[in-house]
Amino acid sequence: MVNRAISALGYTQEELIGHFFLEFIYKDDRNRMARAYIGALANRQTRAQSLQFRVLTKTGEIRWLEANAIIAFDPQGQFIMHEGMCRDITDNFQGDRPSATTNEGQDANTQDTSDESLPAGNEWLRGMDTPLKRRGRKRDREKNLEMEKANLQEANTALKVLLKRRELDRRALEEQVMFNISRMVLPYLKTIAKESTDSRHKDYVSIIESNLNDITGNFSRRLSLGFYGLSAAELKVANFIRQGKNTRQIAQMLGLSPRTIDTYRHSIRNKLHIKNKNVNLRTFLMSIK
Fold first, then answer.
1. Which SS3 state, helix, strand or coil, does residue 264 take?
2. Strand partners, 70
């Protein structure tokens, strides 16, 4: 995607989408930009970088852009995304064009304080480490550090968003697996076990059910209570149990008999798949988000 600000260069969003951005970069800067991008990809580590380059407007005018971009990879080195923000810096130089030969890994916004940048008539300064040049180098270093700090903060924010999104996707997948097993597999296994007269078949069904519970047991407790199909009344009782209330206290608060609460507890254990298991109900409920 590209936002509407691209119209400042005379293009519409539709004219850029689907094209390589290198097509719009000035020909003398294309190789440098391609090398920087390929180098970042080859590193396969999340990296933020800042580069300056020239682009051609739709009318053929040359403009300077500064791009702050992040290329993100997951811990296994798989590409996740590439996102960048460009700003037009042509007018900031007041006629003094920035260097088009910025080295990869070096901040392109650094001012040139080398001997070659000295104007004619100051040849006697060449080769001398003057206070002016020292101040220039210090200013450049400070600017580089500020830029790197800003880039790292942007990269950190982007990674937090990506990690949160991956966690949500993972939990959604886990819930889908649990749903498929609970609603589409286990009921049929119970039917087979109930209707079969062959003891071996019943044993096989029991083994399959046990293995399925073991497979899903690692993440089933991270599901929400609502996922298990608890009724509104059962959810109330479950929350009171999680708070440490006993059967008598829950019965008093809900205006029900202790026997009714025990019935709810039995139903909750059944729906949580811990019926007839030596598992403390409150401990199990507290482990569920």
1. helix
2. 48, 83
* pLDDT bucket at 135, cuts 50 / 70 / 90: low
Architecture of domain 221-289: Orthogonal Bundle (1.10)
Starting at the edge strand found earlier in the chain, the sheet holding 62-73 runs 47-56, 62-73, 79-88
Burial class (CB in 10 A: 0-12, 13-18, 19+), 282: middle
What whole-number distance in Å separates Cα of residue 244 and Cα of residue 286? 10
CA distance 67 to 84: 6
CATH topology of domain 4-118+127-166: Beta-Lactamase (3.30.450)
pTM across the whole model = 0.34
Query: Residues with Cβ < 8 Å from 237, sequence gap 6 or more?
Result: 250, 254, 261, 264, 265, 268
User: 59 by DSSP, 3-state: which?
Assistant: coil
